[in-house]
Amino acid sequence: MRATRRKTILEERVMNDTAILSAAEVLRQGGIVAYPTEAVWGLGCDPGNAAALARLLELKGRPARKGLILVAAEIDQLRPYLQALPPDREALVLATWPGPVTWVWPAAECVASLLRGAHDTLAVRVSDHPQVRALCQAFGGPVVSTSANRSGAPPARSEVQVRERFGEGVDFILPGETGGRERPSEIRDALTGRVLRQG
For 34, 98, 106, 194, which has the most beta carbons within 10 A of its beta carbon? Predict the structure, then answer.
């Protein structure tokens, strides 16, 4: 029997790059993408697409008042969504990025209520997960990031769990692995530094 040749690292990288480009196109078309993050699988969409935001919230059963998180490859992708912080506070925030810390930051007036929820702030993170960063770069901006779970249920930890829980409700699943962290990202207040959720 003829042995099956194992994929080379280069072949796997090309396949992953193709998947990232496909995921970015799905986002641009208003779809919902599942992707691995630092600790759990996330669901994302275009933060500028109101219909996609509403569909994502409905898929999760998440109340709109809670708001959503944006992830990015770099701070400049997030700046249009944020008010300026005092320089000393911004320096403290940026010292944690890229990394698994989400900051609740005063939102720009233009930010949609479906992103902010019932708040005047927006939760944001510059991720250190390579696929999250690559997806944001391919998309050309930040992506919504909310855990892949029905509201109140544990988040998915694998691609298999995403498929079992959401089926055709998700338009594209980006193959990959989480960053291996046990807990989702820590959440802190950008103005005070107060920890809102332990990481």
Answer: 34
